[in-house]
Amino acid sequence: MTKNLFGTDGIRGRTNTYPIDAETLLKIGISVGSVIGKKLENPKVIIGKDTRRSGYMVENALTAGLISMGWNVNLLGPLPTPAVSFLTKSLRADLGIMISASHNPYEDNGIKFFDRNGLKLDDNIEGEISKEVKRPPNLIEPNYLGRANRINDVLGRYTEFAKTTVSSDLRLDDLRVLVDCANGAAYKLIPQTISELGGEVITLAVSPNGFNINKDCGSTHPERAQQAVLDEKADLGLCFDGDADRVLLIDEKGKIADGDQVMALIAKSWSAKGSLKKNTVVSTVMSNLAFELFLKNIGVKLIRTDVGDRHVSERMLAGGLNLGGEQSGHVILSDFSNTGDGLITSLQILSILRNSKKRASEVLNLFNPFPQKLINLDPGKCNDFLEDELTKKKLLDIEKGIQKEGRILIRKSGTEDLIRLMVEHNDQSKLEETLESCLNALRK
């Protein structure tokens, strides 16, 4: 077993292999129940999931483990990750669990945990759970077993909450919105919400069958949505991932706006209104250098963290900040939500777009990003270089040669067994040259 089950965003892996196999999932349920339920009487947990077929297996294994430790389990069915975060606090649960591998294909699945405030668990608790999984279980007496029941009205609660995050006067009449739900958790909720606000909704990837989540659709494959925006003459496209905690935007010309562009637009709007706390945005090391320069030009500071929206959220909480996110489309608006929330982010953008009385192409994409290239490396072949001082010095020397014009970033993936090399430069030819220099350094 690995020392720590957790990656950058909970526990994740291929279904029916460790740790997403029934035996280990049962142990995880028992261990979570033991670690978090130590001092709780009649502890309560809510469990949501996305649309993967394997969600049934994961849900039942975790439920059995938690009940065996005295937890009362409330099953919510398919709904977005941010809804689980919100409902954990709203329903006064001691723990929230979301079963999802986010943007990964259907073969994978994962588990995200939220504390009673709707925040992701801290490293120490995750470490304790990882240790507890290896120990023999200390199960409770039969008369203290928990029970399970299903709650059916949660989508309406979350929808109504999401609509309170924008002005009650907001109407989307005469606005055609293409919504790509990635055949995932938000396939009902998001089209319904946009429609209730008066928008004309054109749907894409809203027919989940357990195996088509994120398949050639959604935020990781937005090509179909881009074409649909053009074909349907939509005013805006919204591309979500499988659990709807991230969103990419598409203007009426088919151009994509990623998380950096979304944060730039919200930062500009909030800063002008005086509602951007401390005139500061939090993002990760993956955010484009041009994004940082744009913020600087409008008087906004950027703080960078390690990859993972949890790290962004923690830094925002520590600094009393209300805007942060990732280039991938996770955007955290902490005035409303403790985690990335695709629906709430979309409503903010729709509100800005409607108030501007401009086309999406005139409002989005406020800066031209520096070219970036991301290479996935096999850790079995090059894992040692992360600890090799000579190789690290070579990479550092290469990066010194492109300061102020580009960056080099190399890191272990927190969601897949890969090492990621990212090179960024404002000149495409220099980028290719720098990338080749990095690869040569690694080969040697």
> What's the average pLDDT?
93
Total of DSSP H or I helical runs spanning 4+ residues:
15
What summary fits the major beta sheet?
6 strands, mixed
Low-confidence stretches: none
**Intertermini distance:** 32 Å
Number of E-type strands = 18
Helical content (DSSP H or I, runs of 4+): 25-40%
Inertia-based shape: globular
Structural class: alpha/beta
For the CA atoms, what is the radius of gyration? 22 Å
Neighbour order of strands in the largest sheet:
1-5-4-2-3-6
Q: Helix and strand layout, with pairings?
A:
Blueprint: E1 11-14, H1 22-36, E2 44-49, H2 55-67, E3 72-78, H3 81-90, E4 95-99, E5 108-114, H4 123-133, E6 148-150, H5 154-163, E7 176-180, H6 189-196, E8 200-204, H7 223-232, E9 236-240, E10 247-251, E11 256-257, H8 259-273, E12 280-284, H9 289-297, E13 301-305, H10 309-319, E14 324-325, E15 331-332, H11 342-356, H12 360-363, E16 372-377, H13 379-382, H14 389-400, E17 406-412, E18 419-425, H15 428-443
Parallel strand pairs: 2-3, 2-4, 3-6, 7-8, 7-9, 12-13
Antiparallel strand pairs: 1-5, 4-5, 9-10, 10-11, 14-15, 16-18, 17-18
Helix pairs in contact: 1-2, 1-4, 8-11, 14-15
What does this molecule look like?
The mean pLDDT is 93. The strands form five sheets. Strands 1-5-4-2-3-6 form a six-stranded mixed beta sheet, sandwiched between helices. Strands 8-7-9-10-11 form a five-stranded mixed beta sheet, sandwiched between helices. The protein has 15 helices and 18 strands.
